[in-house]
Amino acid sequence: MPELPEVETIASQLRAHGVEGKEIRSVKVNWAPTVEPYSAAQFAEAVTGSTIDQISRVGKWMLFSLSSGQTLMIHLRMAGSFAMEKGSHDRIVVNLSDGLALYYRDTRKFGRWKLVDDPQTILSKLGPDALTRQFTLRYFSAAMKKRHRMIKPLILDQGIVAGLGNIYADEALWEARVHPERVSDTLSDAELERLFKAIKHVLKIGIKNRGTSLGDGKTNYRQVDGDSGENRAEVKAYGKSGKPCSRCKNTLVKTVVAQRGTTFCPVCQVV
Ligand SMILES: [Zn+2]
């Protein structure tokens, strides 16, 4: 599932492909629920003729700022991706000026494109993006101490910090040696600082490696050119139950925390 590093990778690759500054000449929506509440025809009419002025990212949202003043906010959800060449499962095709075309691919069909007048209608519900200056240790510590909930669902809560999903949450907790079921207001200042730094660290490494792909299936994350992300070698916990912990050599275990599969080291990550 695309998280902050995967969305950042896709956004920067679309910029590198020259999508910014291109005019939307026509749009073909093959799976109408993607653009709800618009119909496929309404959506195409609303965006055709606009220029994509800027591509940016907040948390797991990708934002296309349009010359019309509206913003196209894209959430890839389970398996959305972009390509510059036609493929299978293309749910939306955006034909651009200068002969470019953008193919939005989504095997699972859960991704959503929201055309909004003001992005704040969605962004105001999010906590600070995990890689911005607004996400500080002071903010993070206060947010954890004032709640009395398990730590893993809290760092997955986009209203507290935007960007983490299941992979990078498990990775950050492993890196910080914090058990995923620890109750937030029982973490020491040292543990909170380790976890805060680990969140930023695992996301930055994920971006540097152009995202994490854990399999070769069609639902797996792909870069814009179709390649897998290269962060797999850096993954220490997620999806590695039964394998030895690379820090203490004990066996990693999988459990369910707040309905999410969770892998951790029962020795390094103490309760
Ligand atoms: Zn360990």
Can you offer a commentary on this structure?
With 271 residues, this protein is an alpha+beta fold. It folds into two domains: 120 residues, MutM-like, N-terminal (N-terminal domain of MutM-like DNA repair proteins, Alpha-Beta Barrel); 128 residues, Helicase, Ruva Protein, domain 3 (Orthogonal Bundle), CATH 1.10.8. 26% of the residues lie in helices and 21% in strands. It contains seven helices and ten strands. A four-stranded antiparallel β-sheet has the order 1-6-7-5. The protein has a four-stranded antiparallel β-sheet with strand order 2-3-4-8, covered by helices on one side. Strand 6 and strand 7 form a beta hairpin. It is globular and about 55 Å long. It binds zinc ion (ZN). The site of zinc ion has 7 residues, from loops.
**Subunit organisation of the chains:** single chain
N→C terminal distance: 28 Å
CATH-derived architecture of the largest domain: Orthogonal Bundle
Radius of gyration: 19 Å
CATH uppermost class of the largest domain: Mainly Alpha
Work out the count of structural domains.
2
Shape: globular
Give the biggest sheet: 4 strands, antiparallel
How many β-strand runs?
10
- In the CATH hierarchy, the third-tier topology of the largest domain is known as Helicase, Ruva Protein, domain 3
